[in-house]
Structures are given as C-alpha cells and as structure tokens.
Amino acid sequence: MNEVSHALRRSRRNRVLAGVCGGLGEFFGISAFWFRLAFLLAFLPGGVPGILLYVLAWVIIPGG
C-alpha cells in the first residue's frame, strides 16, 4: 500500500487571506469553499467568533 501522510498546513496555492481554509480543505479532502462558508457564518453574529477562530487557526496551523 502506498499511503501518503498529509500534515495539516496552511495552503500556499489555495489561499485568499492566510491559507487557513485552503489548508483545511486539502487536509480533509474537500473544497476550501465549505471552510470559507463556515468561517463566514461564524463571522456574521457580531464578528468576534469568526475572526477569533480564524486568527487562532492562523497562529496554530503552521505555514506550508
């Protein structure tokens, strides 16, 4: 079997701001659109939850 281990990293190719959503999309094998939508929905009720989650992920997830 040829298994490739994918580490969670921010994307260098699929990025809009910092590559967080692109990296999550690549790691989980789904479109980054869904992560962008989730962060946008978290941003809507006052802004703080979405921004806080995104900045936290930006700091925690290493760059690719």
Structural class based on helices, strands and sheet pairing: mainly alpha
Radius of gyration: 12 Å
Work out the number of β strands. Answer: 0
H and E string: HHH
Largest sheet, in brief, is: none
- pLDDT average, as an integer? 84
How helical, in percent, are the residues? 40-55%
* Gross geometry: globular
Calculate the terminal CA-CA distance, rounded to whole Å.
26 Å
Low-confidence stretches: none
Percent strand equals: under 5%
Number of helices: 3
Verbal overview:
With 64 residues, the chain is an all-alpha fold. The chain has a domain at 20-60. Helices cover 53% and strands 0% of the residues. It contains three helices and no strands. The longest helix is centred in the C-terminal third of the chain and has 13 residues, at 48-60. The termini are far apart. It is found in: Cell membrane.
Describe this protein with a few key phrases.
64 residues; mainly alpha; transmembrane helix; Phageshock_PspC_N
Secondary structure topology:
Layout: H1 20-28, H2 32-43, H3 48-60
Summary, kept brief:
This protein is mainly alpha-helical. It has helices at residues 20-28, 32-43, 48-60.
